[in-house]
Amino acid sequence: MRRRTTGLALASTALLLALTGCDAASDKAGDIVSSATAAVASAAEEKMNEIKDGVNAGGDVSAGPTSADGDRTVSTITATNPKDKKADYTVMVNFRDADGNLLDSVVLDIDGVEPGKSKTGTARSNRTLSGTPKAEIGQALRH
User: Fold this and answer.
1) pLDDT for 75-107, tens place per residue?
2) What is the predicted pLDDT for the residue at 97?
3) What 8-state DSSP symbol labels residue 114?
4) Which site among 21, 86, 92, 110 is 20 to 30 Å from 116 CA-CA?
């Protein structure tokens, strides 16, 4: 009986160590993805900051549902120009998971939107996203 107990104890310890190793690898992979996501979001913000004379236009822009396009996630972004002259839009689109965690950020230009009209563009993720991400407007500028 003692040998069986010792064997079970050793097997349990080995399993615990293996699982701990998997958790550590998973945590490390998660850290790498988080760092990459933060870098992409930072690059998107820098691109938005390059726009001169842009006016906050978050209310002019909306994101549609997401879908798969090959190995990427896409969303149709609609810009509606309420002004009396043609406008261009630069839009930062964030893709988030069901828990609200940021998965990816992209910047989309929708040019030449006529006064009182709408025009669409497609936001396409930079990489493969898992689950069913949601697209949201992070920032929109009319210029």
Assistant:
1) 999 999 999 999 999 999 999 999 999 999 999
2) 96
3) P
4) 92
CA distance 1 to 42: 61
DSSP of 78-98, one letter per residue?
A: EEE--SSS-EEEEEEEEEE-T
List the helix and strand counts (H, then E) for the chain: 1, 7
Structure tokens at 129: 């996203």
CA distance 111 to 51: 13
Rounding to the nearest 10 degrees, give the CA dihedral for residues 14, 18, 23, 28: 130
Cα of first residue to Cα of last residue in the chain, in angstroms, is 80
Q: d(Cα 78, Cα 72) in Å, to the nearest integer?
A: 19
Q: What is the pTM of this model?
A: 0.71
| Alpha carbons within 13 A on the beta-carbon side of 8 | 5
81 touches 114 (CB < 8 A): yes
